[in-house]
Amino acid sequence: MSASGLGLWQVSGVQTDWHRSLAQAIRDPAELLRRLELGHMADRYSNGAASEFALLVPRSFLARMQIGDASDPLLRQVLPVDDELQPVSGFVVDAVSDASFRTAPGLLHKYSGRALMIAAGSCAVNCRYCFRRHYPYGDEPRRLDDWEPALAQLRADSSISELLLSGGDPLMLTDLRLSQLVDRVEDVPHLKRLRIHTRLPIVLPDRVTDELLRILKESRLTPVVVVHANHSNEVVADCADALRRLVRAGITVLNQSVLLRKVNDSVDALAGLSESLINLGVIPYYLHQLDRVAGAAHFEVDPAVGRRLIRELRARVPGYAVPRYVQEIAGEAHKTVIE
Ligand SMILES: *Cc1c(COP(=O)(O)O)cnc(C)c1O
Ligand code: SF4
């Protein structure tokens, strides 16, 4: 690729609001605790864990944490702690065998009819339980032309009707880069749907730009946006506004969560989240059993507890507000419902 091509791909032109918000994200655990008036609990965080997987928290997400609450469910998702450094047997680097399903650079093809593109290697937040926290993003395409082998693979397989953009977070791409990628994807005639798996509307709500809505609405492909919130305290304020804008633009918006110890492992927490989501027009899609990734063992909830929580949830909220409780079992033809 030429130097000028590289420039076009990397430079966004104007500095957008969301880039400014991203630049202002908190990266220092001590600062995070200070801002929450928890400065006296500096022993709560682990520099060792932070040096393995950095702390990253946008200010909008911080603003939704409760001041002075050391067990805040949002704080727990992002604060590096010593528990991450304890090796636990069964918790491994590639918990879902991504590597064996990579059919081209940046392309994973696990399930019938759907392929997944690792469209970006970074996120606006670093979730401590992330199942791709050890993913070798450095090996994946970065420039538009680097996607050619993946696009060729998509063109060659007419059984694929849906492309998922994932990552990392695909909305870390600028609107320009995203629209260039979508343009190329639209050229694959048998693709019908474009699904975007993103946590940015939750953690960096100003990423939901008018231009993003335009790209999604005007695409030939039917758009589906799958966001990722784990607790009702996440889907308030500017985040609620961003979700409403997506929904009112006519886009199907689904949510997936991970069942996380001391974050959402109670029926009250799950019911609160489901209620908040459906009030905004967002449908709870999946509740994932934690993938057993190294460093995340302290978040695991026993599946027997998860099954009980889902049963109790079903007695509390409308049927369409009950997510499917699933686990990714390597080698299965779909995510496995474990209720
Ligand atoms: C989860 C996943 C999908 C999507 O699965 P759905 O059950 O359709 O949500 C597709 N590809 C890969 C590689 C996945 O991990
Ligand atoms: S936003 Fe998703 S991919 Fe990014 S760190 Fe969190 S869980 Fe992982």
What's the SSE blueprint?
Layout (H helix, E strand, L loop, with lengths): L2 H8 L6 H7 L5 H7 L11 H6 L6 H4 L10 H6 L23 E3 L2 E5 L2 E5 L29 H9 L5 E5 L8 H12 L6 E5 L2 H4 L6 H9 L3 E7 L8 H12 L3 E7 L8 H14 L2 E6 L14 H12 L9 E4 L8 E2 L2
Parallel strand pairs: 3-4, 4-5, 5-6, 6-7, 7-8, 8-9
Antiparallel strand pairs: 1-2, 2-3, 9-10
Helix pairs in contact: 12-13
Question: Can you walk through the features of this model?
Answer:
The protein contains 13 helices and ten strands. By secondary structure, the chain is α/β, with parallel strands linked by helices. It has one domain: Alpha-Beta Barrel (TIM Barrel). The longest helix has 14 residues. The chain is globular. Pyridoxal-5'-phosphate (PLP) binds next to strand 2 and strand 3.
Beta content comes to 5-15%
Q: What do we call the CATH topology? A: TIM Barrel
Order of helices and strands: HHHHHHEEEHEHEHHEHEHEHEE
Q: Strand order across the biggest sheet?
A: 1-2-3-4-5-6-7-8-9-10
For this structure, the quaternary state is: single chain
**Tally of structural domains:** 1
Please name the defining characteristics of this protein.
339 residues, alpha/beta, binds iron/sulfur cluster, TIM Barrel, binds pyridoxal-5'-phosphate, single chain, 13 helices, 10-stranded mixed sheet
Brief account:
Helix content is 32%, strand content 14%. The chain has helices spanning 3-10, 17-23, 29-35, 47-52, 59-62, 73-78, 148-156, 175-186, 200-203, 210-218, 237-248, 267-280, 303-314; strands spanning 102-104, 107-111, 114-118, 162-166, 193-197, 222-228, 252-258, 283-288, 324-327, 336-337.
